[in-house]
Amino acid sequence: MKHGAFAFLLSVVPCLTAGVLFAQDAPRLRGPEPFTKEVPAPPMQRQVTDDVRVMRNYPDQPPVIPHSIEGYAVDLNANKCMSCHARKFTEQSQAPMISVTHYQDRAGNTLGGLAPRRYVCVSCHVPQTTATPLVENRFTDMDALTEPERQPERRRR
Amino acid sequence: MAAGISRAWGWFRANRWVKTALSPPGYLSLAFLTLGGFVAGVIFWGAFNTALEATNTEQFCTSCHEMEANVFEELKGTIHFTNRSGVRATCPDCHVPHEWTNKIARKMQASKEVWGHIFGSIDTREKFLALRKHLAEREWARMKANDSLECRNCHSDESMDLTKQNPRAASAHERFLFTGQRTCIDCHKGIAHRLPDMSGVPGWE
Predict the structure, then answer these.
(1) Transport: is it a keyword of this entry (chain A) (predicted)?
(2) DSSP A103-136
(3) What total number of domains does chain B contain?
(4) Were B162 and a residue from B12, B80, B137, B170 both cysteine, which residue would form a disulfide, CB within 3.0 to 4.6 Å?
């Protein structure tokens, strides 16, 4: 029994220590310490609404929304996004059509309209704000990553 | 027939109150009656319009729980309730015509809403949701018919600076609003209240 307790401590203490150590270089995302303390809310960030399409960081990335979507209904009754991005409204709106995958079910069968699993647009597509990231983004574009492989001689020079 | 009408007219003229009303005044002076009538008219007209304006306030509208619990609650949080410059649209700004004749016409139609309140047509959230599409369609039809007059009372297309709008809004207004193809309500539905089931409504999927 005594042996068991010792083994437990032996396994748990390093994890806790590591947690504390790692927590130090990450920004605190959980609010004030202690959590009961009331602090003024941080200011709202300005939305990016310049209507300029943003490059995808990888081909499968859901494109981000370059306009304001404030007050847009996406609920049981109505989907405001589809008033412009549905296939039949793209001519009058000049908005990009939702991808063809959105008209397919998960087995790849083409449906008559927007697939129910794609209905809630903001599950994947989100507007952007001018907020500075809390942690540094070290994402590397796939092209940059494969460049040395594709152009080995350029690397040698 | 003619004899019957003449007999009824004779009976009407013989009535004591009618006789008094139709004979010249015995005691009151002409000046008192004309000036007094004028002053009484001013007081009546003032009182009438004061009462009319009192029924044309947000406070009056939301004194019925149908409005307060449903549509007013939904208005809060939209751009017409809170915004950066603090300009507020209240219920009558959008739902009652500002011009006097049309205002009176709308007020007479609204007597049905008093009936609805007394007999509880939409006294629960469920009844309201069941009727929401019907109610919304009435307002859309009204605004379509008057070319979105209540929107244009504040949002004039002559004062609209397209260069201050984002390109998407500017091009939409240029192509559809300024050419007269569409009116405000055609595109801007559900901006102040939540939408009903939009299936079958043009422009929605």
Answers:
(1) yes
(2) GB-TTS-B-SS--GGG--GGGT--B-B-PPPSS-
(3) 1
(4) B170
First-to-last C-alpha distance (Å) of chain B: 65
Share of chain B above pLDDT 70, in %: 100
Note whether residue B6 is domain-resident. no
Amino acid letter for position A145: L
Shortest Cα distance, chain B CAs vs residue A138, angstroms: 32
> Chain B contact for A118, CB < 8 A?
no
User: Do A79 and A116 contact (CB within 8 A), yes or no?
Assistant: no
For residue B94, is pLDDT > 60?
Answer: yes
Q: Shortest CB distance from A73 goes to which of B187, B194, B203?
A: B194
Task: Identify from A68, A77, A79 which residue to disrupt to test chain B contact, counting B C-beta atoms within 10 A and taking the largest count.
Answer: A77
- Is the Cβ pair A71, B172 closer than 8 Å? no
CATH entry 3.40.1190.20 includes domain A1-131: no
Q: Which residue of B has its CA nearest to A82?
A: B205
Q: Which domain holds residue B45?
A: 34-187
ipTM of the complex: 0.75
Per the domain annotation, does B181 fall within a domain? yes
| Cβ-nearest to B167 among A51, A68, A86 | A51
B72 falls within a domain: yes
In terms of pTM, does the model score above 0.80?
Answer: no
CB contact under 8 A, B197 and A51: no
Nearest to B166 among A67, A77, A94 (CB): A67
**Predicted local distance difference test score (pLDDT) of residue A1:** 43
Segment B145-149 shows an average pLDDT of: 92
The span from the CA of A114 to the CA of A82, in Å, is 9
Q: How far apart are CA A80 and CA B75, in angstroms?
A: 18
Nearest CB among A71, A82, A83 relative to B78 is that of A71
Examine the pLDDT at A14 and tell me if it is beyond 80: no
CA B149/CA B155 separation, integer angstroms:
9
Task: Give the gap in angstroms from C-alpha B67 to the nearest C-alpha of chain A.
Answer: 20
Check if A13 contacts B (Cβ < 8 Å): no
B205 vs B198: CA distance, rounded Å? 7
Rounded CA-CA distance B100/B41 in Å is: 18
Instruction: Using pLDDT thresholds of 50, 70 and 90, give the confidence band for residue A129.
Output: very high
